Amino acid sequence: MLRDALESRISQNMNFDDHPVQLEALRVAIGHDIRVLPWDMDIECNCVMYALGMFFEPASSLMGRFYASTAFVQRLIDTGQLAQNHADGDMVVYFKEGKVAHIGIARQGDRVESKWGIGLPYDHPIWEVPSTYGDEIRCFTAMSVDDAMDELSRFHNG
Predict the structure, then answer these.
(1) Which of 1, 31, 76, 129 gets the most CB atoms within 10 Å of its CB?
(2) Which domain range does residue 48 map to?
(3) Does pTM surpass 0.85?
(4) Is residue 12 part of a domain?
(5) Are β-strands 35-36 and 121-125 bridged in parallel, bridged antiparallel, or unpaired?
(6) Total domain count for the chain?
(7) Which segments of 35-144 does DSSP mark as H helices, in order?
(8) CATH number at residue 86
């Protein structure tokens, strides 16, 4: 019930100023432990770029907005560039029907820090995420930003 509500009230709601209000309403109605993290809305990036630390480019640049996608993460996994692991600071990858749907940063206490689409970043329990992120997770060792940028260049250049 919570995950479906997060999908409709947060993921599909492009009024980002409304997200904290919606989260509080869901906290009262259903209960959850999701916290909004501070964010400069002038920096546009998706969950992949956030988790890999690639949020330093403006959205209008070559590296902007959705340049690093879940397809990029899928390729990193498929080619063995990401090693499965589980520790604080590593990446948590969510799968829906066997395909990468979302990515976040593992934190202590089974929590994840992740950016939901182009909206706000959140600190949340592993399974308190929108329903479209799927029902399977795997954890991988984090990549350095430099390594991720090199792999991203290879990804887009064939």
Answers:
(1) 129
(2) 35-157
(3) yes
(4) no
(5) antiparallel
(6) 1
(7) 47-51, 70-78
(8) 3.90.1720
